[in-house]
């Protein structure tokens, strides 16, 4: 039983109880019919089966065709006991079960869908029609309306239950895809950062060895000593508590990188501050890669109402239009994941302002209230 099916079984349980009460009222109003003892025996058995099905259908272990077949057999048995209770037929009277016989039809529909619900309605309807037919009824007095209602109940409830299960499955699949996507993004960021470190090491060793190794180092990412230092100094995100973002940003300061922070602390949850500092490091990595190891860059941090804003600016060649989308499509995830992905996971936004020959400005904003949770 899926979570979405629970309400259906509870509604069927309510229907069985209400129908049992209705059948009891019919028995009382008829004075017990022709055979009161047999009538109360049937009502008692219906009550016991009602209690049994309420518990059985609420337990996933009992779900299946054995229970459904038993439910149908009990329903047919009580329905076909009507002549033993009522004796001579009176036009317009209901069977001793009243509407209680619809419980099995609804159960079949919820379990198997509209076709199974229709099959259950057919079985019960044929039994009901046969019951009245063998008692000398004419066709015009047969309970056709009841048959139509049974079919409508079985088909409609079965169809709605099937749609509900499909919607639940799609929702679960969407949740799984979202979780998997977030995990892929996290892994992509970690891999991206690790690869930067490896490429920086390859470049350094290539320069030391010289010759073809130097060319290999250049092709490994055009990393130089400044980039290696930035990667080495990048702080690991603290695991718990709070942190002052200013402290994490100041380690990026160097002869070519100017870090400007306010006089008052920029207090954030430690994990949030660590991720934001890592995003700044990724932005500075891009400055080193695309503008050169000694290219000047500026980091500005401030608190603006309910948000903490950090801006990384350089005076490099700028980013041509469409270059970021092209880089993401080819698997270069520096901006897409290490910057935008990190900030998006924090509930923030990233704005990139750039034009060829006019440098690049990356503004990262994280809501303080969201970050505090």
Automatic annotation (TrEMBL):
> Pfam families, from UniProt?
DUF5931 (PF19354), HATPase_c (PF02518), HisKA_3 (PF07730)
Q: Name one GO cellular component term.
A: membrane
Tell me the ranges covered by the Histidine kinase/HSP90-like ATPase domain, including all copies.
279-368
Mark the transmembrane ranges.
12-31, 37-57, 64-85, 91-111, 144-164
Keyword annotations of the record: Kinase, Membrane, Transferase, Transmembrane, Transmembrane helix, Two-component regulatory system
The chain positions of domain Signal transduction histidine kinase subgroup 3 dimerisation and phosphoacceptor read 183-225
Q: Which Gene3D superfamilies match?
A: 1.20.5.1930, Histidine kinase-like ATPase, C-terminal domain
Q: Note the InterPro entries from the entry.
A: DUF5931, HATPase_C_sf, HATPase_dom, Sensor_HK_TwoCompSys, Sig_transdc_His_kin_sub3_dim/P
Which SUPFAM superfamilies does this entry report, sorted A to Z?
ATPase domain of HSP90 chaperone/DNA topoisomerase II/histidine kinase (SSF55874)
Pinpoint the DUF5931 domain residues: 3-171
Lineage top rank: taxon: Bacteria
Among PANTHER family, the record links this protein to: NITRATE/NITRITE SENSOR PROTEIN NARX-RELATED, OXYGEN SENSOR HISTIDINE KINASE NREB
The protein depicted here goes by the name Histidine kinase
Q: Which organism is it from?
A: Streptosporangium carneum
